[in-house]
C-alpha cells in the first residue's frame, strides 16, 4: 500500500503535468507552446540578451582601458622628455648663447648693401698692394638667396708667384667673407703667373629685399 500523502501525490501530478508540456513541442510555433516551455524560453532569451549586453560592455571597457594605457605611455614619455629638458636647461641656455655669439660674429662678416663698394675696393687694393696687374675685374649679377645676396666677380691678375700667393692670403684675411672659386694659374712668357678666378662676396639683404623674396 502506498504511503504517499495527498500533498505528495499532488506534487507528483504537477511535475508530471509540467514534464508532459515539454513533450512533442513544435519548434516552428513557439507561440503555441504551453505556458511552462514559453516561460523557460523567455528566461533563456533574457539570459542570452543579458550575457550579450554584458559581453559588449566588457569589450567597450577593455578598449577604453587599452586606450587609457596607451595615453598613459604617451604622457609618460612626454613627461620624461620635458624633465630631461628641465634638468639640462642651464646647459641648453649656454648652448643657445654660444650659437647667438657665433651668429653675431658671422653677421659682422657680411656687409650690407651700402658697404659693398668698400669691400670691392678692399679686394682691388689687396691686389694692387702686392704689385699685381689687374687684367680683369668684372662684378657679375647679384644672386639673391633667402636672407643674403651673393656677388660673383670675375678677376684676372698677373704677377710673380709669391705675390699672387700673398694676394690670396690677403683675401682670406679680410674682415668680410670672401672666397676664391674656379682658380686657374697660367704661366706667362715673361716668367710671371696669371691668376683667373671668380671671387665671391656676400652681403645682407635689406628688409625690403627680404620681403620681395618668394616664400620658401
Structural commentary:
The protein is of the alpha+beta class. It folds into two domains: 1-87, no CATH class; 111-212, Alpha-Beta Plaits, CATH 3.30.70. Helices cover 56% and strands 20% of the residues. The chain contains six helices and five strands, in the order ααααβββαββα. The protein has helices spanning 6-21, 35-87, 89-108, 116-129, 161-172, 207-212, and strands at residues 133-139, 143-144, 148-159, 178-187, 193-204. Strands 1, 2, 3, 4 and 5 form a five-stranded antiparallel sheet that branches. A hairpin with a 3-residue loop joins strand 2 (143-144) and strand 3. Helix 4 runs antiparallel to helix 5 (161-172). The relative contact order is 0.08. The mean pLDDT is 78.
CATH topology group of the largest domain: Alpha-Beta Plaits
Described by strand count, sense and barrel closure, the largest sheet is: 5 strands, antiparallel
Report the count of strand segments: 5
Mean pLDDT: 78
Taking all Cα atoms into account, the compactness measure Rg is 48 Å
N-to-C SSE series? HHHHEEEHEEH
Globally, the shape reads rod-shaped
Helix fraction by DSSP (H/I, runs of at least 4): 55-70%
CATH architecture annotation name of the largest domain: 2-Layer Sandwich
Q: Please indicate the percent range of residues in DSSP E strands (runs of 2 or more).
A: 15-25%
| The first-level CATH class name of the largest domain | Alpha Beta
Which structural class do the helices and strands define? Answer: alpha+beta
Amino acid at each position: 500500500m502506498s504511503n504517499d500523502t495527498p500533498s505528495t501525490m499532488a506534487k507528483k501530478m504537477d511535475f508530471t503535468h509540467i514534464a508532459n508540456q515539454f513533450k512533442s513541442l513544435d519548434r516552428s510555433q513557439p507561440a503555441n507552446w504551453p505556458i511552462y516551455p514559453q516561460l523557460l524560453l523567455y528566461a533563456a532569451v533574457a539570459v542570452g540578451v543579458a550575457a550579450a549586453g554584458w559581453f559588449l560592455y566588457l569589450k567597450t571597457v577593455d578598449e577604453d582601458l587599452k586606450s587609457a594605457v596607451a595615453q598613459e605611455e604617451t604622457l609618460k614619455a612626454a613627461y620624461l622628455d620635458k624633465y630631461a629638458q628641465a634638468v639640462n636647461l642651464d646647459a641648453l641656455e649656454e648652448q643657445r648663447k654660444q650659437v647667438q655669439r657665433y651668429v653675431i660674429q658671422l653677421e659682422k662678416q657680411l656687409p650690407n648693401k651700402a658697404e659693398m663698394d668698400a669691400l670691392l675696393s678692399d679686394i682691388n687694393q689687396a691686389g694692387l698692394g702686392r704689385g699685381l696687374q689687374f687684367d680683369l675685374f668684372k662684378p657679375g649679377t647679384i644672386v639673391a638667396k633667402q636672407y643674403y645676396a651673393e656677388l660673383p666677380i670675375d678677376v684676372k691678375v698677373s704677377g710673380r708667384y709669391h705675390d699672387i700667393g700673398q694676394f690670396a692670403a690677403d683675401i682670406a684675411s679680410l674682415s668680410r667673407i670672401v672666397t676664391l672659386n674656379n682658380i686657374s694659374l697660367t704661366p706667362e712668357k715673361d716668367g710671371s703667373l696669371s691668376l683667373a678666378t671668380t671671387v665671391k662676396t656676400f652681403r645682407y639683404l635689406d628688409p625690403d629685399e627680404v620681403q620681395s623674396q618668394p616664400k620658401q
